[in-house]
Amino acid sequence: VRERSAVEPHEAIGDVGPSTRDLFRERILAARTVIWNGPMGVFEMDSFCEGTMAVARAAAEASRHDTTVIVGGGDSAAAADVAGVAEDITHISTGGGASLEYLAGRALPGVEVLTEADPA
What residues pair up with 36 in beta bridges, in sequence order? Predict the structure, then answer.
C-alpha cells in the first residue's frame, strides 16, 4: 500500500487504501441514504478486493441501522453477494448506469416508450 503520489507511471492502482476505506465507512454510517454503484477496485482479484468488501460491509451495517441502502449495478450486486451481506441491503438492482441516469432525471428510452404507450 502506497500513497497515490508514490505510484510510478508504469504502475496501476487496483484498490482504495486503508485510509480511504475508513473514510468511506465513516461517511456511509453517518448517512441516512446510501446509493452505491460500482466497486472500489478490481474486486474480482483477491489482492484488490478489500476496498469493495469494506464498503459492502459498511453498507450492510448502515442498512441494519435504518439507513436506506440502494446498490446498483451487476458488479456491486455481485460484491455484496461475495461479501455475504446482500440480504442485509435495502435494495439491490443490476441496473447500474440506467439507475444513475434515472436518478439524474435523464430520459430512459424504454421508460419513455411505456409512458407514451396507449393504455387501451
Answer: 71
Is residue 25 included in any domain, yes or no?
Answer: no
Note the pTM of the prediction, 2 decimals: 0.85
Contact 78, 71 (CB under 8 A): no
Contact 73, 97 (CB under 8 A): yes
pLDDT at 120: 67
Looking at 1-120, list the stretches that DSSP marks H as alpha helix, in order from N- to C-terminal side. 18-30, 50-64, 74-82, 96-103, 109-116
Tell me how crowded residue 75 is: count the other CB atoms within 10 A of its CB: 17
Q: What burial class does residue 40 get, using C-beta atoms within 10 Å of its C-beta: 0-12 exposed, 13-18 middle, 19+ buried?
A: buried
Instruction: Give domain status of residue 88, yes or no.
Output: yes
Task: For residue range 33-84, list pLDDT tens digits in order.
Answer: 999 999 999 999 999 999 999 999 999 999 999 999 999 999 999 999 999 9
In the chain, the number of structural domains is: 1
Strand order in the sheet with 91-93: 33-37, 68-72, 91-93
Residue 86, strand partner residues: none
